[in-house]
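**Protein of interest**
===
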Amino acid sequence: MASLSCTPWGYLEPINNIYPRAILTKSSYIIGRHPNECDIVLESKELRQHEYFIHLSSKHFIIESIDNGRTIFFRDVSRNGCYIDGELIHHTKVLLQNSEHIISLALKENRVYRFIHLSGLFGVSNLDERYLKANLLGTGSFANVYRAISHVTHTRRAIKIINKDQCEKQIGPGFSKYLYREVSIHGTVDHPCILRRFDVYHEKSDLFVEMEYAAGGSLLDRIHKTYIMDEDECKFIFYQIGCALAYLHRLKIVHRDIKPANVLLMSNERETVAKLSDFGVAKYVYASSRYLNTTIAGTQQFMAPEVQFQTGHSTNADVWSFGMTLLNVYVGDTVFCLRGIRALNSVAHAKKDIKEIITKTLEKNTYARPDMNQLFLYPWFCDSSCFERIQKLVHV
C-alpha cells in the first residue's frame, strides 16, 4: 500500500476536463479504468462516450515518488502504451526529469494530463493555505516567479517573490518606494490585456505578489522558438497590447518597459490573448506637460530617445517602445539584437501598412510621433477580420 506524504509532490492537470484532476500526496498512484484497483479512476459517463475510452486499460500507468518527492518515476502497465512528451513508453519505467510533462494515453494524439512537479510550500502562511509551489517560471535581479497550484480550485497562479535585501543592494535605501509603486499601480489597473494582480503579502525579507498565470509564456519565448512571426500573427498580438497601452495612457500611466519579455501569452495557440506585464518602472504622469519624467527607466534596446538622453518623456515613450517591440518580433530576434534600429531596413520586403506603423512609432521627434489612439487609425490596424477574431477571445 502506498505510504502518505505530508507535502504534495505532483499535480495531474487534465488537458481535457472529462478526466479527473489530482494533487498527489501518496508515494505512488495507479491510474486506469478499474474502480477497485486504481487510485485515480478514468471512468465516467462523459469518458465512456469519448472516442479514446476503449483504448484505456484497467490499469494504465503508475506514477510514484521517492526521496520525499524529489525523484518521480512513471511506469506504463497498459495494453496500448503511453506517451511522455510525444515519446512512446510501453511496459517500461522512466524517470520524469523535467518540472512539467505531457502524458498521452494509448495514442499519441490522446493528450490526457499535464504532470507538474511540485516543489513544496512558499513558507508564507497566507499563501501556503491556498497554494502549492510548482516550478520556477523566471528569474530577475531581485525577484523569482513561480507557478503555483490552488489547493481548492486547482487553478494556476504566478507568484512573484521579491527579495527586499537584493532590492536595497540594487536600488538603495529608497527601494520600498519603488516596490510600493509597482504593486500599487499594477493593483489599480483592470483591463483584459493587462496581466491581473491579485493579493500582495509582506514578510520580513520578501514581498509575495500573486498574479494571473500565462500558460503560453512570453512573446520573447515565442520568437525564440519560431524566430520570425508573420504579419497576421503580429497584428493579432500587437492590437491587444496597443489597447492595453491606450488604456494605461488614459489613466496617465506610462509603462516605460515595453518589450517582448513583458508581453505574456495566455496559451500556446497561434491566436491567443496577449497581456502586458511587469509594472516595475511604471509611473503616473501628473502634470499636463508631455515631458515630465527625466529619469532613465526601461531596457536600453527598446528605450525612446527622449528617455535615453533625459530630455523629458511621458506616455509617448511607450509608443516608441511599442514600435521597437513590433520591429523585434517581425524581423526576428537575432537580426534585431545584432543590428538594433538598423534592422528597420530588413522590413523593406514588408507590406506598406506595417512598414508605415513601424516608421511612425520610431519617429525620433516626439511631437511628430502619434499617440496610441492615433496609431489605431492607420490602415494596418483597420482590419475588421483581425478585430473580430480577437473579440471572440477577449473583449478589448
In short: The chain has a mean pLDDT of 86. The chain has three domains: 10-116, 125-212, 219-393.
